[in-house]
Amino acid sequence: MLKKYKLVIKTILAILVAAIFVNTALAQPSQMPMLERTSQPVGHYEFCQRYQSECQPNLPAVVPTLTEDLWSQLIEVNGSVNTVIIPRTDEEIFGVAERWAYPTKQGDCEDFALLKQYMLQRAGVPRSALLITVLRQRNGAGHAVLTVRTSEGDFVLDNLDERILPWNETDYLYLKRQSELDSGKWIGIADDRDILVGSVR
Q1: Quick one: DSSP state of residue 145?
Q2: What are the E-state strand segments in the chain?
Q3: How far apart, in Å, are the Cα atoms of 4 and each of 7, 10, 16?
């Protein structure tokens, strides 16, 4: 009887994932409009000093096709990291204002993004499509997420939201992200949407 219930639950979950995937695939693709190369966040620079292999050129840059399988991977990784890692500031964990690191039990926003990037890359998603992105929230506070580039647009994996949304359906002001050509370099984002964010707009 228990096996039967597990099978029913698995079937329902598969149907839900498929329905979300179909809805997403039918939406108008939207990529973040990019600017020129810009400054690398200090925390990421220090991270690259410790993990040099994670900050190398990604040539050639590859944009993966958004398949049902990839969508399922995104949902699984986003949900598992958001559930397992306890949100804590760098001040609480390390006693410093900013330190980018792979979390094991606790971390702040960029740590969540780094772990999601690591897990998806190990699952076979091209590194050039997995980009740490820095932004401002509506209250003006800084925040970091993982942007996943796909054939159907750029999607955001966020530790503050269980949903995986197209970047332009979020209410953040996007500032810059890793270059798809080189994980150690950063590119500005021309986010000209009418978003009221703190004192920025």
Answers
A1: E
A2: 34-38, 86-87, 106-107, 130-136, 142-150, 153-158, 161-166, 173-178, 186-189
A3: 5, 10, 19
Residue 95 inside a domain? The answer is: yes
Ramachandran angles phi, psi of 14, nearest 5°? -65, -40
The pLDDT, as a whole number, for residue 15 is: 52
Q: Domains in the chain: how many in total? A: 1
**Residue pLDDT, tens place only, 144-200:** 999 999 999 999 999 999 999 999 999 999 999 999 999 999 999 999 997 765 544
| Residue 122: partners with Cβ closer than 8 Å, 6 or more residues away | none
Contact 125, 104 (CB under 8 A): no
- Phi-psi domain of 47 (left: phi exceeds 0; alpha: psi -120 through 50; beta: other): alpha
- How many CA atoms lie less than 13 Å away from 200 in the CB half-sphere? 20
CA distance 194 to 23: 25
d(CA 146, CA 154) in angstroms, rounded, equals 10
| 174 within a domain of the structure (yes/no) | yes
Residue 164 in domain: yes
Burial class (CB in 10 A: 0-12, 13-18, 19+), 190: exposed
- Residue 128's CB: how many other CB atoms inside 10 A? 22
Which residues span the domain enclosing 35?
Answer: 30-189
